[in-house]
Amino acid sequence: MREDLGLAGRSDPKGSINLRIEAQTRRIIDEAAAVLGKTRTEFMIDSARAQAIDVLLDQRLFVLSDVQHAAFVDALDNPPAPGPKLRALLARKPAWQG
């Protein structure tokens, strides 16, 4: 799955991100990093990366029960007939064609 997100085997050069944060937030981050035996930078990168992966997977992966999956496949295999709004949309000339 990580390969699909473009995260495997990358050798991109490192860059930097500068952040301004409140002192209290920085202390919390430092404390959490220390608990895990990480530097602030390691903790922030790991946390941000994990959150980013979760956000991306949320957009790409969904889990269904057997019943939900069957209903989903049935809906794909048997779509409803086009209604008047869809027919009108498909008949309309696209704006980019002038």
Automatic annotation (TrEMBL):
Keywords: DNA-binding, Repressor, Toxin-antitoxin system, Transcription, Transcription regulation. Signal peptide: none annotated. Coiled coil: none annotated. Belongs to the TacA antitoxin family. This is DUF1778 domain-containing protein.
